[in-house]
Amino acid sequence: QVQLVESGGGLVQAGGSLTLSCARSGNISSGNIMGWYRQAPGKQREWVAIITMRGRTNYADSVKGRFTISRDNAKNTMYLQMNSLKPEDTAVYYCNENFLIWGGGTQVTVSS
């Protein structure tokens, strides 16, 4: 059974940077798509970025040019490099595999 555990969240000032990690354990599957999502207080969970097994990426317009998703398949780990952070990026960030499996989330708070 696959488990996903996020880390790297915290408090940062606007304009700052954070790097989130998602460690994956369990059965190794081929062709998986992994992604980052976020949920702000009082709002629905939204998609942030996805990456395929071969490294093809796609981003939500709100983070394009500021966030970079990557993965290290040998380490079973996915990352989200977040630059130029804005207060509206404040949310709990979740990693996901194949649109089915979720991690427990990590809090990111951006102060103005």
Could you explain the architecture of this structure?
Strand 7 (about 65-70) and strand 8 (about 75-80) form a beta hairpin. This protein has about 110 residues and is mainly beta. The chain has strands at about 5, 10-15, 20-25, 35-40, 45-50, 55-60, 65-70, 75-80, 90-95, 100, 105-110. Strands 2, 4, 5, 6, 9, 10 and 11 form a seven-stranded mixed sheet that branches.
Provide tags for this entry.
112 residues, 7-stranded mixed sheet, 4-stranded antiparallel sheet
Quote the beta fraction.
over 45%
Low-confidence stretches: none
Annotation field: number of helices: 0
The major β-sheet equals: 7 strands, mixed
For the secondary structure, the number of strands is 11
- Series of secondary-structure elements, N-terminal to C-terminal: EEEEEEEEEEE
List the helices and strands and how they pair.
Elements: E1 3-7, E2 10-13, E3 18-25, E4 34-39, E5 46-51, E6 57-59, E7 67-72, E8 77-82, E9 91-97, E10 101-102, E11 106-111
Parallel strand pairs: 2-11
Antiparallel strand pairs: 1-3, 3-8, 4-5, 4-9, 5-6, 7-8, 9-10, 9-11
In brief, what are we looking at here?
Helix content is 0%, strand content 53%.
